[in-house]
Amino acid sequence: MKLIRVLHVISDLAPGGIQTLVRGLAIEMQLRKHVQPGIAYIASAADQGRDPGFEADFLNRLSDAGIPAYKLGNQTRKNVLLGAIRLRDVVAKFRPDLIHIHLGYGLLFRALSGLDVPTVYTNHFTTTSFPGLLFRWFDRTITECVSICRECDVFLKRVTKKPVTLIYNGSSSRVTHAPRNAPNGQVFRLLSVGSLTPRKNFPMLIDVVETVSRELQKEGRSIVCEIAGSGECLDELKGLVSAKKLASVVFFLGQRTDIEALMNAADALIMTSTGEGLPITLIEAAHAALPMITTDVGGCGEIVSDGLNGYLIPDDRRDLMAQRLLKLIHEPDSYAAFSKKASEIAQTFSLVNCATSYEALYARLAKA
Fold first, then answer.
1. CA–CA gap between residue 228 and residue 190 (Å, rounded)
2. Side-chain half-sphere of 104: how many Cα atoms within 13 Å?
3. How many CA atoms lie within 13 A of 187 on its CB side?
4. 57 vs 19, 60, 156, 169, 261, CA distance in Å?
5. How far apart are CA 87 and CA 138, in angstroms?
6. If you write DSSP's letter for every residue of 152-168 in order, what string do you get?
7. Is 97 helix (H, G, I), strand (E, B) or coil?
8. How far is CA 175 from CA 53, 198, 257, 267, 289, in A?
9. Mean pLDDT of successive 10-residue segments in the chain (368 residues)?
10. Residue 185 has what pLDDT?
């Protein structure tokens, strides 16, 4: 198989599922030696006001794998023509056979660049920040689109005339755990992982934990909830925790690079987002054999099957989420069954499967 050079274009090096996925795919493909990846990004973590630890780890892993990274510059968000010029400069240096775009700004840069390079676009959400009509223009430079869940697939097929291929996100086996027979101890450890932004709806999580903690106290039991992530809502959320007197229950861990250890130590994973694509966090939780409770948004229902490996909750149903969490804590047989099913479904969402599907797509497009 001829070595195919693929340039990925992402938004920034702040913590996020897209960044984690692209990094994992790039390293996996570099190891297979069929694809030579490169990564172009718009902004640094500092540009976004985010913890630099993730960025340092991201770039170190790429460097260790021999994968080049190129910064386009945060100013290109306001000057898309400059973004197009800098994308052309990166293409001249890296000389890709394919460009793989993972964000809307990348589509703008690509459309204005005048480049003659086949282009793949992966839409990582079930909507886009741009009007759907813009895809008539983007279609002139996109070769093929990729959807990451069924809802995303429906959306893309509505706005683009280009072929759409469904490729599920995947996580590496670095986060693994044997099926669990029961929670780890008397204190139930709940974990949530995500950026502290409005879309993640952490106030809902805090309300749920307050209700569950109050009920467990009546039984002489307790719960702790650890939140791993950083973002703009940290002070607001800390204020809410303080107001509800939950400082001994809810803990903000900041940005972490040891998600594997956190998931192995947890008893369940919870997500309260108002919108998602196909969350890497849920995939990692499945690999860690964690029962999951999540709002039923985006592709969450393709990872979590209600009553089989966790619970799906209609958006913003705090009462129902609290009831389901208490049910999980009180029913050890269900807990063990959920953990086993989570471990089984994780195989569908492996990084190996994801990389293999993308390699096949790249090979097909490179020959066209």
1. 11
2. 11
3. 11
4. 12, 5, 33, 21, 16
5. 16
6. HHHHHHHH--S-EEE--
7. coil
8. 20, 27, 12, 14, 9
9. 92 91 96 96 87 89 97 96 98 98 95 97 86 89 96 94 96 78 91 95 98 96 96 96 98 92 96 95 96 97 97 94 97 96 94 96 91
10. 80
Q: How far does Cα 224 stand from its chain's mean position? A: 24
Say which residue the tokens 């020959």 belong to.
Answer: 367
Task: Report how far residue 223's alpha carbon sits from residue 238's, in angstroms, rounded to the nearest whole number.
Answer: 18
pLDDT score for 126: 86
What integer pLDDT is reported at residue 47 of this predicted model?
87
Residue 43, pLDDT score: 93
> In what side-by-side order are the strands of the sheet with 222-228?
250-254, 222-228, 187-193, 268-271, 292-295, 310-313
Distance separating alpha carbons of residues 191 and 291, to the nearest angstrom: 11
Quick one: tokens of 175?
């986060």
User: What is the C-alpha to C-alpha distance for residues 292 and 302, in angstroms, rounded to an integer?
Assistant: 12
From the number of C-beta atoms within 10 Å of its C-beta (0-12, 13-18, 19+), residue 73 rates as middle
Residue 313: enclosing H or E segment and its boundaries? strand 310-313
d(Cα 58, Cα 107) in Å, to the nearest integer? 23
Looking up tokens 């049910």 gives 327
